[in-house]
Amino acid sequence: MPGMWWAVGAIVLVGLVSTYLVWTAGRVERLHARAQSAARALDAHLLRRAAAAAVLAERRYGVELYAAARIALDAHPDEREAAENDLTRQLRAVQLDPVDPDCEAVVAASRRLALARQVHTDLVRDARAVRGRTLVRLLRMGRGREWPRYFDIDDPILTVPADVPTG
Amino acid sequence: MRIGIVCPYSFDVPGGVQNHVMDLAEALIALGHEVSVLAPADEDSPLPSYVVPAGRAVPLPYNGSVARIAFGPVSTARVRRWITRGDFDVLHVHEPLTLSLSLLAVLSARGPVVATFHTAMTRSRALAAAQGVLQIVLERITARIAVSALARKVQVEHMDGGAVEIPNGVAVAKFAHAEPLPGWPGECGPGTGGTLGFLGRFTEPRKGFSVLRDAFVDLAPSRPGLRLLVAGPGDPDDLFGQFPAGLRDRVTFLGLVSEEEKARMLRSVHLYVAPNTGGESFGMILTEALAAGTTVVASDLDAFRRVLDGGRAGRLFATGDPVALRDALVDLLDDAAARATLTDCGDQVVASYDWPVVARRVLEVYAAAIEATDGRVIDEEWVGPG
C-alpha cells in the first residue's frame, strides 16, 4: 500500500519541521532573555563605576570629574552613551594614584565594566543574528520583545601609572 | 564559587592546554574555590584529586596532528552526569570548537559558560562547512577568553565576537626555586665561558634552531668554555650531526624533559635563546625563562616583543639573523650587569603572569558571565583577593 507510506512520510516530515520550529522559537527566546540579563548587568556596572568616580571626585579631583559622574548617573537613556564616554575621558584625564583605595575602586569598577560591555556586545550580536534570520522574521518569532540594542561606548579600561598588578 | 572546568585533551599525554588547565585549577583552589576538572583519562590512571576521568581517549588525527579525545554517546552521558552532579556556578571549557568533551559540555550546559581559546587556528575547512553548527556552539558561550593577541584576533575576525585577552599563567615559584642541574651553569666572564639554552623541537624550521647553531659555531672557537644545553624531542644524531666534530663535546642534549626538569634546565643556563622564525602566538617559554630568573635573548617577533616589554625584559635580535644573535650573545655574556638589569625588569614583567594574578582575572570573567546570565551583580568579595 504505497498510500500509507506517503502518509507516514508526511507525518514524519511534519514532526521534524515542528520540532525544528519549536527549537528555533526556544532559541530566539533564550538569546533574547540572555541579552536582556546582560543589559541589566551592564547597567549595574555603569552605575557602580559612576558612583565610585563620584566618591573619588568628592575627595580629591574636584568639580569636573564629579559633574561627569553625576551626569552619567542621571543621564536619560538617549544621552547615556555620550555621558559614559565623557566620564571615561574625565577619568583618563586625571592622574590616578594606584595606592589610594578610592582610585583602586574606580580602576576595578572600570575593569569589571569593560568585561560587562564585552559580554553584552557579544550576546546582543548573537540575539540580533538569530532575530534577523528569514524564518524567524517570517514567523514573527520574538514579537513582543524589542530588538536587543547595542550599547556603544568606548573601552572604559583605565591604565594606572606603573601598571604592576599587586597580587 | 563552584567551578567546572573541561579539558578536551587527555592528561595521559603532556601538553600546553593540559598544563594550563591543571595550573588554573590549582590556583583557583588556592584562592578558596571549589573546582572539578573533567578530562579524558582511564579510570585507573593517577590523577590529581580534583580531576574526574571521563573515560579513555582515542587518538584521532586533527588539524595536522594527533589529538587524543573522547567523543560519542558514552562521553555525552558522562558529561551530562558530571554537570548535573556538579551544580556549578560557572562552566569553563577549553578549546570548545574541537570534537571533544568541551564541545559536548557546551551543548549540554544550561548556565553561564566561559570558553578559552588557546590556538590561533583560523577556521578549519570542516568548521567553515558547518557554519550553522558553529553558530549554535558559539551562541551558548557567554564569555570568551583568548590566551594571546593572535588567538583574540582570530576570534574577532573569523568568529564574529570579541574575547578578553588573558595570557597564559606561569607558576613563578616553581621556576624561581628550581635547583640547577649539577655542574651548571658554570663560569661566565668577559671573553670566556657561558652557557646557552634552547628548548624545543630542534628539527622544526620555525623554531629557528639553525640560527642558534650558526651563531654558536661562529662564536665557540673564539670563546673557550662556551656551552650549549639543548632539551626537546628528537634524535641525538640529528642534533650532533649539525655541529663540527670539534664542538660536539660542548653541546649537551637532555632529550624530552618533564616540567620539573624544564624548570631546572632553565635555571642551568646564563642565556636562554628563543631563535624562532615565526608561528609563535604567545611565547610561553619566555615567561617561564623569566620566572626562572634567566636572561632571555629572543628573535624580534611580535609575540616575543610583547612578552619582553619591547626589549626591556630581554634582548631582541633581528629574526633569523645569526650574526645579530652572535653579537647579542657576546654583549650579554661579557656583561653580568646588563644581564642583571634585564632579569630585574623580567621579574616585574613576569609578576603579571603569575598564576594567582591570572586566576583572579579569570574569576572576573566568570563573574561577568554569571551576571550576564541572571542579570544581578556579584559582590566584590567573590573575585577580590581572598
From TrEMBL, chain A:
Which ranges does the record mark as transmembrane?
6-26
Superkingdom of origin organism: Bacteria
Q: Which keywords does this Swiss-Prot/TrEMBL entry list?
A: Membrane, Transmembrane, Transmembrane helix
Name of the protein in its database record: NUDIX hydrolase
Biological source species: Micromonospora musae
TrEMBL record, chain B:
| CDD domains in the record | GT4_PimA-like
Q: Give the Glycosyltransferase subfamily 4-like N-terminal domain ranges.
A: 14-172
Highest taxon of the source? Bacteria
Q: Which keywords does this chain's UniProt record carry?
A: Glycosyltransferase, Transferase
Question: What GO biological process terms are annotated to this protein in UniProt?
Answer: carbohydrate derivative biosynthetic process
Asked if the Swiss-Prot or TrEMBL record annotates the protein with the keyword DNA damage, the reply is: no
Under InterPro entries, the record lists:
Glyco_trans_4-like_N, Glycosyltransferase_grp1
Q: Does the entry feature the keyword Transferase, yes or no?
A: yes
- Pfam entry (one): Glyco_transf_4
**Gene3D superfamilies referenced in this protein's UniProt entry, alphabetically:** Glycogen Phosphorylase B (3.40.50.2000)
GO molecular function terms attached to this record: glycosyltransferase activity
The name this protein carries in UniProt is: Glycosyltransferase family 1 protein
Q: Which organism is it from?
A: Micromonospora musae
